[in-house]
Design brief:
Elements: E1 9-14, H1 18-29, H2 31-38, E2 42-48, E3 64-65, H3 69-72, E4 79-82, H4 90-99, E5 103-106, H5 109-125, E6 130-131, H6 142-149, E7 155-161, H7 164-176, H8 180-189, H9 198-201, H10 204-218, E8 228-229, H11 237-245, E9 248-258, E10 264-274, H12 278-281, E11 286-293, E12 297-304, H13 308-327, E13 356-366, H14 371-381, E14 386-391, E15 401-408, E16 411-412, H15 413-424, E17 434-438
Parallel strand pairs: 1-2, 1-4, 2-3, 4-5, 5-6, 8-10, 10-17
Antiparallel strand pairs: 7-9, 7-11, 9-10, 11-12, 13-15, 13-16, 13-17, 14-15
Bound molecules: L-homoserine.
L-homoserine is lined by residues 138, 163-165, 192-194, 200, 205, 305-306.
């Protein structure tokens, strides 16, 4: 048992951007309800910012500091809240806060995914809490569900759309016929994108989130570098249109599944999902996570994965949880990663080449006799069987390339990749072939 705290819970905040401001607003607007729920009030002692020149809202008046020590060395601060993002100096501040015996609430998925395996055991050893609900899918309470609500179940699979920027871009391309750059600019203007949008569109942000989700879901110490990752940058307007002709929508997915042999299947990539599926209906910047419990069956959580107030809501709810623990002197009661640290496993991660699914393949070819037969021949040689096919009619004469799109039966990924490498060398091919998975069970 830790000592009980019977005064206001005092917090120090790192990060005075839009989420930091959202946290101050929420604490002010909901102060009464929070106190009635937690049994104590929350007092913000200090907000540490980096950028001295940036204009800020009057909510920060009297709270701002530019010295991390004002939070880290203040013995009266119980909880350090980190919403500045990035690995450093955020990682250093979180580590120093834990070492100083303070609980931490963070929204930093990169930090959790990359350094959680060091920081979480440190917090457990110091018997302080390290909570991170806002790090995955912003305002959606998926961490809490995995950590607490499903404590009696075995998660067998999870499928999600956890990068709002990518979902927004693909939705805008589909619904409004925008090109990739226009849709990305829209996502940035709406404040969904990371400071470096390659993390969003390249899949890295979703990979960080999947590493965290898979750790909690499967009791496995999953690292982001173990996850096969593909971004959405190669999805063209033509793919969105062709997918639609076959009754599919292209979505940016994060998938984790426990395989019968004990290994984990972990993937981040765009995929075709049926138009009538739940995943297809989650549009714009919305996120979704569908958990599949062995006992529970499917459980769907959807909402805003970014934005100042949804993210602030998750952060402040974590502060309330930590505060409840402090009020009762019970920090460290719930394992941060859902499983007691000594029981986390390191199961093998299935090589991506072993994955089997149906495929969408697009070839740009010259419309000449024999081209199609040669493509089909190579696919057949690699045991990839064609299920359906469409060829776009000739546009501007016989020298104009045409798109040939094929949907395959289930085929092993390594066979598809080998076949595509051979097909690219064939006469009549004018551009690299594109391959997208068709997600079963979506
Ligand atoms: N850039 C992230 C997204 C925001 O687009 O989902 C919150 O993680």
């Amino acid at each position: 048992m830790n000592a009980r705290v019977s005064r206001p819970i005092r917090i120090g905040l790192f990060g005075a951007g839009v989420v930091g401001e959202g946290i101050l607003r929420l604490l002010e607007d909901n102060a009464g309800a929070i106190e009635r729920r937690m049994g104590s009030s929350i007092e913000v002692r200090r907000v540490v910012a980096r950028d001295t020149g940036r204009p800020r809202s009057s909510r920060f008046d009297g709270l701002l500091s530019f010295r991390p020590e004002d939070v880290l060395d203040d013995p009266e601060i119980d909880v350090v809240v980190e919403v500045m993002g990035g690995l450093e100096p955020a990682g250093e501040y979180v580590r120093r806060a834990i070492e100083a015996g303070k609980s931490v609430v963070t929204a930093n998925k990169a930090l959790l995914a990359e350094r959680g395996h060091e920081l979480i055991p440190l917090s457990e050893a110091r018997r302080v809490d390290l909570y991170f609900e806002a790090a995955v899918a912003g305002g959606i309470p998926v961490i809490r569900v995995l950590r607490e609500a499903l404590a009696a179940d075995t998660v067998v699979a999870l499928r999600g759309i956890v990068n709002g920027t990518s979902n927004y871009i693909l939705s805008e391309m589909r619904e409004r016929g925008l090109d990739f750059a226009e849709a990305l600019a829209g996502a940035q203007a709406a404040g969904y994108a990371e400071a470096d949008p390659t993390l969003d569109v390249g899949g890295g942000d979703a990979t960080h989130k999947l590493a965290i989700l898979a750790t909690l879901a499967f009791g496995a110490d999953v690292r982001p570098e173990e996850i096969a990752t593909e971004g959405i940058t190669e999805v063209g307007a033509v793919d969105i249109e062709m997918a639609s002709r076959f009754g599919y929508v292209i979505k940016p997915l994060a998938v984790g599944a426990a395989r019968p042999d004990g290994s984990l299947d972990l993937r981040v990539h765009p995929a075709l999902v049926p138009e009538a599926s739940v995943l297809a209906s989650i549009s714009g910047a919305l996120n979704v996570v569908v958990l599949e419990g062995k006992m529970l069956g499917p459980c769907l959580l959807s909402g805003y994965g970014a934005g100042a107030l949804p993210t602030a809501m998750s952060v402040v709810s974590d502060i309330v949880d930590v505060g409840r623990n402090l009020v009762f002197g019970a920090s460290g009661r719930v394992p941060q990663r859902a499983w007691r640290g000594e029981h986390l496993a390191r199961p093998p991660i299935a090589p991506p080449g072993q994955h089997e699914c149906r495929w969408y393949l697009r070839f740009s070819v010259l419309d000449r006799p024999g081209v199609l037969a040669r493509i089909a021949g190579v696919l057949g040689a690699f045991d990839v069987s064609i299920e359906q096919m469409v060829q776009e009619g000739r546009g501007g004469g016989s020298d104009e390339p045409v798109h040939v799109v094929m949907l395959t039966h289930e085929a092993r990924e390594e066979n598809v990749r080998h076949a595509l490498r051979e097909i690219e060398l064939l006469k009549g091919m004018v551009a690299r072939a594109r391959a997208l998975r068709i997600e079963a069970g979506a």
